[in-house]
């Protein structure tokens, strides 16, 4: 099973700042099959990025993903008030599919 | 519009059985795998497994194998998650989610239900 480790656990930033979230895999993720999700309190997760760097439908271009192999990054170029949430990475390159533990982006 | 609407919150006692539902609409139910995801109180997301509604082909995460059962009813485009004997540790929110691309088991989850809260307490 691939273990995904997200860092930092919590990121304290102000609106307008840049957020950089990391997701490290215990072994290489096949085909860069890595997704990022955003979850706000009381809501279901929402797909942001798939295949490491492709934005899902309707996702603003301030969200971008990069990486391959074992190291992946989600970047939020300029934080908007609605971006403060928890972010999860997920690998779907091999069974069982696994999620990272999450990074909370909070208002500083 | 693709929609997944889950059944309401449940409060059950340990040892009881339970089935929760995920009613889908807006797409061809039999063409897309559906996943189930657990979120325990205050914790992260856990992938439980997937089911293909066309033939009920099912893949369980080892952590959930033998603990839960996935099923579907194609006539009403609905997926189910069931337990035969609940434990307190099953207390969580359970989400159903649809794979983004048709016919592919391992892919990102593009459409999510609103979640069903299950509480197991004596």
3D structure, described in words:
The complex is a heterodimer of chains A (108) and B (122). Chain A has strands at residues 4-7, 10-13, 19-25, 34-39, 46-50, 54-55, 63-68, 71-76, 86-91, 98-99, 103-107. Helices cover 0% and strands 49% of the residues of chain A. In chain A, the strands form two sheets. In chain A, strands 2, 4, 5, 6, 9, 10 and 11 form a seven-stranded mixed beta sheet that branches. By secondary structure, chain A is mainly beta. In chain B, β7 and β8 form a beta hairpin. Chain B is globular. The model of chain B has no long low-confidence stretch (mean pLDDT 96). The interface between A and B is medium-sized, with 26 and 23 residues.
> Largest inter-chain interface?
A-B, 26 and 23 residues
Structural class of chain B: mainly beta
Question: What is the overall pLDDT average of chain B?
Answer: 96
* Rounded Rg of chain A: 13 Å
Order of H and E elements of chain B: EEEEEEEEEEE
Short description:
Chain A has strands at residues 4-7, 10-13, 19-25, 34-39, 46-50, 54-55, 63-68, 71-76, 86-91, 98-99, 103-107. With 108 residues, chain A is mostly beta strands.
Topology of this structure?
The complex is a heterodimer of chains A (108) and B (122).
Chain A: E1 4-7, E2 10-13, E3 19-25, E4 34-39, E5 46-50, E6 54-55, E7 63-68, E8 71-76, E9 86-91, E10 98-99, E11 103-107
Parallel strand pairs in A: 2-11
Antiparallel strand pairs in A: 1-3, 3-8, 4-5, 4-9, 5-6, 7-8, 9-10, 9-11
Chain B: E1 3-6, E2 10-12, E3 18-25, E4 34-39, E5 45-52, E6 57-60, E7 69-73, E8 78-83, E9 92-99, E10 109-112, E11 116-120
Parallel strand pairs in B: 2-11
Antiparallel strand pairs in B: 1-3, 3-8, 4-5, 4-9, 5-6, 7-8, 9-10, 9-11
Q: Key features?
A:
heterodimer; A: 108 residues; mainly beta; 4-stranded antiparallel sheet; 49% strand; B: 122 residues; 7-stranded mixed sheet
């Amino acid at each position: 099973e691939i273990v995904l480790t997200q860092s930092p656990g919590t990121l304290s930033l102000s609106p307008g700042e840049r957020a950089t979230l990391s997701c490290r895999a215990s072994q290489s993720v096949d085909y860069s099959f890595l997704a990022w999700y955003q979850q706000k309190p009381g809501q279901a997760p929402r797909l942001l990025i798939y295949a490491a760097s492709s934005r899902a439908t309707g996702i603003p271009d301030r969200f971008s993903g990069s990486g391959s192999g074992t190291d992946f990054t989600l970047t939020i170029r300029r934080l908007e008030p609605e971006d403060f949430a928890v972010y999860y990475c997920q690998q779907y390159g091999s069974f069982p599919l696994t999620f990272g533990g999450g990074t909370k982006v909070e208002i500083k | 519009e693709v929609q997944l609407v889950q059944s309401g919150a449940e409060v059950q006692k340990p040892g009881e059985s339970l089935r929760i539902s995920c009613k889908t609409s807006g797409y061809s139910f039999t063409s897309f795998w559906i996943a189930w995801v657990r979120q325990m109180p205050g914790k992260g997301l856990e992938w439980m497994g997937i089911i293909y509604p066309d033939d009920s082909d099912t893949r369980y995460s080892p952590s959930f194998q033998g603990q839960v059962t996935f099923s579907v009813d194609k006539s009403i485009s609905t997926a189910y998650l069931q337990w035969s004997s609940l434990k307190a540790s099953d207390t969580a929110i359970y989400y159903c989610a649809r794979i983004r691309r048709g016919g592919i088991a391992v892919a990102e989850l593009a459409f999510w239900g609103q979640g069903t809260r299950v509480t197991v307490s004596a």
